[in-house]
Design brief:
OB fold (Dihydrolipoamide Acetyltransferase, E2P), 479 residues, 61% helix, disordered C terminus, alpha+beta, two-stranded antiparallel ribbon, five-stranded mixed barrel
């Protein structure tokens, strides 16, 4: 294995091992000593594996510490800062906050703020609330713990007393305001999902249709978004007559700003790191290696929080990208022999391999697998990149913003229509265990048939499996 793959993979494995067993510094030193007598490449890999194991163990211990857990059942005036956009459910407004003060105690701990339905606090605002601490429910305890959240702060009202004044909050507020000027309702909510990965403005029914149709991934920021941001920057700068060096440098800055504005979601950070590494590869004159970028993205996420490995977003994102790298090219080549429109072959190949790779994960976490993902994605694909491009142009060109946003609203309505149509068809998704088992059996049989057919083609065999010499020996014409 190349060193470029071995080292980040060793870090990832070490962080993953910390989920099973926590270790202290002494076992790490023992592994380092073992590595010292091995080959240099293997020794460095062992050092990184041991370091990742120790670091992951320490990060999990840090995430498991809680001062507020001992205060459950008490009420105090507290100062908190919102860390993300608020999520509005059917019963409450919920937002992750950083608790700065609990009564007379100064601290730095993440909690989940729960408010009555109504006005939601903006991202990055500093709030004063009179709240009561409670334990998370059994349903949400494990999920919240993996993000370092151990208590729920329930309050009846809040008062904005300041702002966090971070660059990420300012970029987020600007992009929310400037990318969809003059739009409201469902069209605005769909655009915010495509541009920012925020789905809180969408109705529960429409979100379910996006899931059932296999289009929900379009509401999560991914590599396609980063490609439009970085590639669009390069094209724009080159069109202005500036050098490629300036274009790649500005693309690196815009990718970083976009990632800050969207927030630290696994798919966002993975895509942002891949795009940034691509720009750096050109600036330094090095060869681009997509697998190396993918492993570095995984290592960065796991070093920050090893529990991310168990997050559905992490698993879906990396499974889909891995499938695109491995299986999409041969599937795309196979489609060249079929009477399909040229522009449809790429979406069909990507949808097929991503759907197959993510189906087990989708069933494991959500107990549903979309069946119409290929036709749904082929229908929706022409609208997605233009939606993001128009939203960014509206933000960069305020005088044209309302006009561009109006045109973008038509594309958003089309995308919502695709989700409603395909997600509403009978049998759009599998939700039963028997159906999932039948789907898995059918997929295995299809894969076995495709593999056997490809093996025969490589060996020069015709479809019926007999060699031309055997046909001629029996007096049959050669195939």
């Amino acid at each position: 294995m190349r060193t470029a793959y071995l080292l980040p993979a060793a870090l990832c494995v070490g962080c993953a091992m910390s989920l099973v067993l926590r270790i202290a510094l002494l076992p790490v030193l023992a592994l380092v000593c073992v590595g010292a007598v091995a080959r240099p490449q293997l020794a460095l890999a062992l050092v990184l594996l041991a370091g990742g194991w120790w670091w992951g163990s320490d990060r999990i211990r840090t995430l498991d510490r809680s001062v507020l857990a001992a205060q459950v059942g008490t009420a105090e005036r507290t100062i908190v800062e919102t860390q993300e956009p608020a999520h509005v459910t059917r019963f409450a407004v919920r937002v992750q906050v950083l608790v700065r003060r609990w009564g007379d105690i100064r601290l730095h701990e993440v909690a989940l703020l729960e408010l009555p339905l109504g006005r939601a606090p903006p991202q990055g605002s500093r709030l004063q609330v009179l709240g009561t601490l409670r334990d998370p429910s059994d349903f949400e305890r494990t999920r919240l713990r993996r993000h370092g959240v151990h208590v729920v702060l329930r309050a009846s009202a809040f008062r904005v007393v300041g702002a966090r004044h971070s660059l990420a909050d300012r970029l987020h507020a600007w992009l929310v305001r400037a990318s969809v000027p003059g739009l409201a309702g469902e069209r605005r909510a769909v655009l915010e999902g495509v541009v920012l990965g925020e789905t809180q403005g969408l109705s529960q029914g429409l979100q379910q249709r996006f899931r059932a149709s296999g289009l929900y991934h379009l509401l999560a920021v991914s590599g396609g978004n980063v490609l439009v941001v970085g590639g669009g920057t390069v094209v724009l700068v080159l069109a202005l007559g500036l050098s490629r060096l300036v274009a790649e440098s500005l693309a690196l800055l815009t990718i970083g700003g976009y990632v800050l504005a969207v927030g630290p979601q696994p798919s966002v950070l993975r895509a942002g790191m891949s795009g940034a590494l691509g720009c750096l590869a050109w600036l330094t004159g090095r060869e681009r290696d997509r697998w190396h970028a993918l492993l570095l993205g995984a290592a960065a996420l796991l070093l920050w929080n090893p529990w991310t490995l168990l997050d559905p977003g992490f698993q879906l994102s990396f499974a889909a990208v891995g499938a695109i790298f491995v299986a999409a090219p041969p599937v795309r080549r196979r489609l060249d022999g079929y009477p399909l429109p040229r522009h449809a072959r790429e979406p069909i190949a990507l949808s097929a391999v991503c759907g197959a790779a993510t189906a087990p994960i989708s069933w494991l976490h959500f107990h549903q697998v979309p069946l119409l993902t290929i036709p749904a994605n082929v229908a929706a694909a022409p609208a997605v990149a233009p939606m993001l491009a128009l939203a960014l142009l509206a933000a960069l060109l305020p005088p044209l913003g309302p006009t561009l946003a109006h045109a973008n609203g038509l594309l958003a309505a089309y995308l919502a229509g695709c989700a409603r149509f395909f997600g509403g068809l009978p049998g759009a998704q599998v939700t039963s265990g028997a159906g999932a088992a039948a789907l898995a059996a059918g997929a295995l049989l299809l894969a076995a048939y495709a593999w056997r057919r490809g093996e025969r083609a490589e060996g020069g065999l015709p479809a019926h499996g007999k060699r031309p010499s055997e046909d001629r020996a029996r007096g049959a014409p050669a195939a």
